[in-house]
Input
Amino acid sequence: MTSSPDTPAPDPASGPTPVPAAGSGPRPATGPATGSGPGAEAGPATGPGPSAGAGAGPTAAASPADAPAAAPTSAPAPPSAADLDRRIDVIGRQPFRAKFHLRGRDLVTAQSHGPATLRWHARDLIAQRLAPAEPYKDGKQTPYRGHPVFVAQHATATCCRSCLRRWHEIPKGRELSRAERAYVVEVICRWIEREVAGA
Output
């Protein structure tokens, strides 16, 4: 290729061809602008990012609030029918408890209402009369008759907090927990179920 009279031939040892002055001709293409990839117009942005900050030290430890919450503890499994039967049989050997049975109107109520309705009645009565830390007239709050749940409470020693502590090892002076309420209801309903089945 022949060079023009006004432009000296490039010397291979002198480096790249110098850029002509403005207005002397088309500007040759230059290399890529500073940046992180082809065609970048400018250097990388200076805003905050993973690499921003004074140095590349280790990532800050997560705060306790960011730690995953502990899995909730599962509720204790309800006692089996066999466990309930053993407890009821032991309590029923006491002469005072052994004399309680469903008879007359209380038996008819148990048969006509059915297990589901009686369970709801038991939950409500236990919540009102037995679950508080200091039940009203504790020791005398459970009638001897008038509802199958009342009879079952005396038969299973779930009639007051003193009997509950002695026979079921549930302490006095505090409100019954949800699990303890559920246990008492299970004992009562199991006794009623046995009475209806044996009638």
The CA atoms of residues 34 and 43 lie 5 Å apart. Helices lie at 81-92, 95-98, 104-129, 148-155, 161-168, 178-198. The radius of gyration is 44 Å.
